[in-house]
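Anyone opening a protein record will find just a pair of labelled lines. With that in mind, the following record should read easily:
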Amino acid sequence: MHNEVNGDVHGTVVQARDVYLQSRAPTALDGLPPVAAGFTGREADLTAVAEALSSPQPVVVSTGLAGVGKTTLAVKAAHDAVAAGQFPGGVLFVDLQGYSPGTRVEPLIALATFLGALGVVRVPESQPEREALYRSRLAQRRPTLVVLDNASSSEQVRPLLPPGDQHRVLVTSRHTLGDLQGARRLSLEVLPAGDSVAMLANLTRATDPADQRVASAPETAHEISELCGRLPLALGIVAALLSDDPGLPLADLVVLLEQARLTELSYHEDVAVRAAFDLSHDRLDPAEQRLFRLLSLNPGRQVSTGAAAALAGQPVRATQKLLAGLRRAHMIESGEPHGWFRFHDLLRLYAAEHCAADDEEVRHAACVRLIDYCVQAAGQAEQQRAERSNIVAVVQLAHGLGRYEEVLGMAFALGTFRFYGRRNSEEGFLTYELARDAAVRLGDGDSEAKALRGLGWIHREAGHDEAAYARFDQAAAASRELGDRAGEGRALHSLGTLARKKNDFSSAWTHYRRALTVYRDGGERVGEGQIRYDMGILADDESQPDLAVEHFHAGAEIFAEVGRLDLVGRVHKRLALIASDSGRQEEAQHHLNAAHAAYLAGGHEKWARQLWQQFRKALRGRRSRE
């Protein structure tokens, strides 16, 4: 038997196989890195981590994409917790380098590091023995914080979890580590705009306190932070570039970033946004990598699961699994509503770079599948609401690829009312201008006139009366040349309504009468009824109640004939207002009853319920104008 005693020995030595003694164990806190010089903001995130570290759950996982500042936050939170006296046992810290295949720290090595920090001189050979000794040592210590930075999998973490519930573990990872049971998860986003500029200023002043480039050009600094995607890694690289070149104006750096963002966001090969993304990308399986590349072909800000499946040429169920894997790896982010996904700006550029290396036929086929999907989605009301912005972007894609029939199909399936209102009108102008151009290229006069009418309606709703008038006038001329009486009538009708709303009653009558003639000649009974209704409103506006009643009655007869009971109800509501103005209350009630019955017969129960409330509101409005 061999006995070995190490260290200073006092008192009795017990006979044993091996006895390892050390007089003084190293302090666990010695391994915690300092807080980054440029750290700023993140108050809400620090509060969330602090609350989580105080909760009964023994593990906190801070997740986020590469370069978002997970390590920096974890280190700052650890320092704050120690300063607050929360972990008198100290802090154990290890960078697991989970995304670097050549330098990845396996649990066996991490355990050796921790055991050394805990005072163990002779570390056991096998992993089970190391785990047992590690946990037995921690069981004897006061509350300790274990920081496991840059973990790529739960398998890298589990062997390093301490015993009991007095200790805490803070894990950072680009993956959500969903199979790490009992862990509380905090997702870290990019910096807010103000904090990203502050970080840039802090980092440049840390090198040279006299450097005022950021402070003296806040708008340009904000532009730089946006070009960096407000990603701390990218901001740190930019700050290093600025510090190395004190004479470089911020405006010049903006130009460089605009020309080649991923290329310029590199300080050296080990400190680059692209290098950080490479480490995450290389851990994806081939199917996930393929979908990641193809998603960059989607021109919209977000992509739905259905659109992603179309790009991949895969069933929706299989695509859902791939998207979930990409989200867990933080290569994409969850969008809104549920089932939608989006890229960080820099990751989109990175994905596009990889996609550019694919065969052109592969990219073209994926785009065609996406276009075909959006043509179908545009024809379905439920998908229209969710997909509108994405479909608009795909309209541009289809136009660029010369898929003009699909451009027309998507634009006309969306209609125009989804673009009403100033918030959506720009998308509407773009969509219908492309539709008009597609129609011209196809020599499709009917579609050109339809696109012109659509532009007129969108301009009208946006308050662009002159532009709307020009488009309706062009549409009327185009339809007249084609012999399309219905199209000409709708354009003239719209011209009359524009004039009426501007109180140009003379022009309104001219356009309305021309529209009435065209509708009659073309046998457009619904159009004829609608123009009669608007002529009634015009006569009412001019205080010609008898003429208004004549037109309203004519309109009601046509609407009843064609089965448009909703419009019959609307006419009777107008007739009730005119009767009430003249004090003929019984007649007014008769028309209200008729309107109510028409709404019910047409299946419009909601309108029937709201009839009297709307009538009273309209009546008050008429009387206030007297």
